[in-house]
Structure prediction request, 175 residues.
Amino acid sequence: MNSSQTDNLHNVPTSGCLIGIDYGTKRIGIAVSDYRQFLASPLNNYQRNGIQADERYFKKLVAEYEPTGLVVGLPLHMNGSESQKSGEVRQFGQWLFRMTALPIAYHDERCTSVQAESLLLQAEMTSKQRKARLDKVAAQILLQAFLDLRRPPQPLTLDPVEDTDEVAHDSTTDF
Prediction:
């Protein structure tokens, strides 16, 4: 993984819906972006049911949302090196590419589940409610981080001071 925490960054188009994927062996969190790639929203959690069911699910998802690319969370160690799980995720990404022919970007997913859990705790959800939302919120955080990384920096602008002929008069300081 390079220093930008994303690889294959330039293969994914900069417009059109993107789908964010928080990979898991049992559940996969799914998020989608808007067409302008400004905002990510959690979509759902997919409960895995075998390779054929996975294929049907992802083909239906791609047909429904017509994404221009997929962003897959890549689990890394805290020092940035790839984990054992990273290889499994890359194989999953290759499978997605073979099945959909869509460009795949891998993005650093360190701490996304922790951030998602924190957000859900702040919302005062029960443990059951948090579990039902955790993976799709982690996918949203992952996808939003990817979108933010790709967005060109906006120049800092200051509001211009209005040019007025009148000077504010403070009644406590009459000269």
Remarks:
- Residues 127-150 form the longest helix (24 residues).
